[in-house]
């Protein structure tokens, strides 16, 4: 494997009208390709897919005979460069010249696999691979490149390796030439010498004869484009040929294609009948994306790029024995402009075309990307399918390198394989690509050509600083082994969809917050600025807000058919200076009216006393006097609303409030909550008979490496710092799990101050231990956790929010076990998007379906006492620091409309169907009335829009 740019020959295929931001990312008897080829249908097909269709993870398996393997090459791992009579290769001599390789490193010893075959065989067995792709060293078998000098030591080494593989039921995939040409053959001109066709055939014939009784999969050349372009055009690979620029690379390819065809025919004529193997060559190809997709010139340019890179070798072999027309025309035209007598691209005779055409039994592909980009693998495989008649395809190299010398816990490599193998699964299962095998690059860390040992591609780490070259399996090796064991990525049993109903009287709710919704309303009305710096509508404005917010929002709630509505009360709107000395009756009357209209619509209010902002005059939650102020504020609400409100939330996401000055603020928040709970419990509960608690927000955390105790501890610590900080004192023993203690009287006062566990949950993270310097004193340093997201997880409109339904169930179960199965109400759950003017939001529907289903599993399978679920949010609104860019709403808010009109998204209808069914009816039992279309929803929308127009 080698990643490089190919500027000279690429200049042949790109003109001034072609895209310059091309993104790096193959059977016989087929006619020549059109220009552009019919494979352009791949771009057309994938351009019609939604982002959700492209990004969603696909679970599935491969056929039973699927080939799983790992790759290596002789020069990169064997070492023993002059051992036992081996002749020098061009890479031996090239690396011995200072300055050619990074850090002047060589492959003289490399992984020392020449002397460690038994250890390598043991590691291959542990990986569970059923194939191993390796190359033969031509100069180890023929020291001078010719069969007059057979080195029996080299032959015996490969015999032992092949026999060892077969003894463990591992199929050898053998590459005849992986760039290490005998120096003696380079001395006669190397691949520019037509005699190489005969010399390569002689070498191949010997290998077929000697090893072919056991080897059934042969690859003649690995990535021949690297030989042509890097060795004879860019001149960065040996032989550093710098003469004849623009000619030499085409001449070399011409000879390589003839040499490949000659070896293929030798196998076909002399060995196939008895040995019954397959012969091909491995081509490396990158995917390119036309930008924009609808520009025919860009589609043609992208197709031309693939024809120059892959078609250069694949077209003669897999199509019609000749180079692609796009390539012939382009090189020919440029040659004419250069006033040359003929094209720099050589011409095959008709006899040569017929001889070359069809000289491959399968298509072998090496594929890499410079960075993790989803979908490219699927597209490239589909392009090969369309262009070359859906040949059997083996991915013979695919992998990613690390820069760290000692990184065994290589999560980034796991993400790479997890994502790319899934794209391969999609190509096979969804697109019908004839995929037969997948071979990871690489088996071991190895000599990576010009980069020396800096790039670590191995599933096994090799310590090159120790003479014994010890190998250590990386975490990615364990992961890949598990994929092989499962023959793909089957859907985990826990993630199978569950049909069923939620308990009767389950709370179905949506949420909003005072400040976030009021930001939508205030621009529409004349506003008065009070002395606290908060915008407060005049009495006239409140009357309009009653009509607009209350009636329109309740109409939306009725359309969704929720049983509850969770909203917050703005402390400064009710008490402008934060104290009961000054009560804003207009503001309080608004909430009284809202509660009345909700109850009239048979929707129960769920009231948050405070979200995250408080009146400026109170000095913040750091001020201990705020405990009593909050209690007085809450008592006013109990007095004025408590007869009608039966579900109270004292604090929403106290973690977010406390994050600025965590421990002091957290201390006061907990005490304030406890005081309000006792106030309600002792004074108001006997008559009002409501429930009161607080809502905590938490991600679920999975260990970054599930086999590493340090990461397991970090994941637990992450959840404890989010949830346990506030839940431990209230739901357990009155004290923190790992913080300064409350007094004994405070513990008793705090413990048990809940009627339910309110939970806001959105996503999951991967956690690992992070050691901060000892002198740092901060909340993050105390927690000592680093978090990342799995790159295969679906994203959202928020960078932090990944679609991870499994974590929802795990968190619910954790709360059950940690806090003795309290009644749980999910008080927020939802997903953001950043698409304007889109009412079709399948991403949100997918999220709701899977998260709510995980909630059902928590009840049915885990015995969690879950009693309600709330979607965030009713409508698109002001999302704090990100403003209006992230849209969480079930209803679309048109911010460009002065009337701020709301329109139901498709997800609102889906959520409504879940509510009507109280869960997920099994389609196998027949049609269900709860899933019938609801005409009244459309009528409500018409009434709603007429109302908005009338008051506008």
In words, what does this structure look like?
Helix content is 42%, strand content 14%. The chain is an alpha/beta fold. It has two domains: 7-491, Glycosidases (TIM Barrel, Alpha-Beta Barrel); 500-951, TIM Barrel. The strands form eight sheets. An eight-stranded parallel barrel has the order 2-3-4-5-6-7-8-9, surrounded by five helices. Residues 4-11, 13-26, 519-542 and 942-952 have low confidence and may be disordered.
Question: Can you summarize this structure?
Answer:
This protein is α/β, with parallel strands linked by helices and about 950 residues long. It folds into 2 domains: about 5-490, TIM Barrel (Alpha-Beta Barrel), CATH 3.20.20; about 500-950, TIM Barrel (Alpha-Beta Barrel), CATH 3.20.20.80.
**What is the residue-mean pLDDT, rounded to a whole number?**
88
Number of domains: 2
Number of E strands? 29
- Supply the CATH class of the largest domain: Alpha Beta
* Secondary-structure arrangement, i.e. CATH architecture of the largest domain: Alpha-Beta Barrel
Overall shape: it is elongated
In this structure, how is the largest beta sheet organized?
8 strands, parallel, barrel
Cα(first) to Cα(last) distance is 66 Å
Structural class: alpha/beta
Q: Please state the CA-atom Rg, rounded to the nearest Å.
A: 34 Å
Question: What is the CATH superfamily label of the largest domain?
Answer: Glycosidases
CATH topology of the largest domain, what is it called? TIM Barrel
Low-pLDDT residue intervals, each spanning 5 or more residues: 4-11, 13-26, 519-542, 942-952
GO cellular component, one term: external side of apical plasma membrane
Active site: 397 (nucleophile), 828 (nucleophile)
Keywords: Glycoprotein, Glycosidase, Hydrolase
GO molecular function, one term: protein homodimerization activity
